[in-house]
Amino acid sequence: MKATDLIDALAKKLQTNSQAELAGVLGISVATLTNWKNRDENLSPSQVASALAKSRLAAVKKAQIESIQPIVEFYRINKCPTRREAGWQVFDGGADAILYAQGLRDELNACYGIYIFYDSRGHALYVGKAREQTIWKEMNLAFNRKRDVQTIALVNHPERKQVFKPGYEKLRQPKDTQLELFDLACYFSAYHVDDGMINDLEALMVRGFANDLLNVRMETFAHSRA
């Protein structure tokens, strides 16, 4: 097989835009690729096999490095009302926010993957995934969602104009109260995850910490869903 024919076919199949990009995908140097192209000789079976082996190694290395990438970890939640005050969002990343918060919101709004909510001690409360919508959108939906397991005993104190009476005059009983994550969570982390791994990574985390998380659904792995 002529070197130029193989290079052209690979560039088309792998949808690369330059020799440098193609060389990176194949796991060979640009100099080697250029040498093949300039000489335009027939490549031996050994050379083709070597290129395929290096390409496989390059793909594995790329997957290992890029499959899971941290965006932010243990970022303090500072809830603020949504634009129409229909709920809460985890922090203000709007035009009036600091540049760091604006940049974080932009990144979360551009990425898909996994997010985790933590309590005030940094213990994980809830793990969620974002595949259909961005992490920012999914995370804020979960932030406002009620779940039966998010129930604790609290005393309901008056919020209207009412004279305070101490407990020895009017005893108020603790009652089971269902809370949203915006009442429970103090920190969050977010990770960009390759689309093919999002479901399994969520399943690993939920199943691995099943007794510590508020997740109700016990996720399954891809081979179990097939």
Topology diagram in text:
Layout: H1 3-14, H2 19-26, H3 30-39, H4 45-66, E1 68-76, E2 80-81, E3 88-89, H5 99-108, E4 113-118, E5 124-130, H6 135-143, E6 146-154, E7 175-180, H7 181-184, E8 187-193, H8 198-208, H9 222-225
Antiparallel strand pairs: 1-8, 2-3, 4-5, 4-8, 6-7
Helix pairs in contact: 2-3
Key terms:
4-stranded antiparallel sheet, elongated, two-stranded antiparallel sheet, alpha+beta, 226 residues, 2 domains, 434 Repressor (Amino-terminal Domain), 9 helices
How would you describe the overall organization of this protein?
A four-stranded antiparallel beta sheet has the order 1-8-4-5, with helices on both faces. Strands 2-3 form a two-stranded antiparallel sheet. Strands 6-7 form a two-stranded antiparallel sheet. The protein has helices at about 5-15, 20-25, 30-40, 45-65, 100-110, 135-145, 180-185, 200-210, 220-225, and strands at about 70-75, 80, 90, 115-120, 125-130, 145-155, 175-180, 185-195. With about 230 residues, the chain is an alpha+beta fold. Strand 2 (about 80) and strand 3 (about 90) form a beta hairpin. The longest helix has 22 residues, at about 45-65. The chain is elongated, with a radius of gyration of 26 Å. Helix content is about 40%, strand content about 20%. The two termini are about 40 Å apart. Helix 2 packs across helix 3 (about 30-40). It folds into two domains: about 5-65, 434 Repressor (Amino-terminal Domain) (Orthogonal Bundle), CATH 1.10.260; about 70-225, no CATH class.
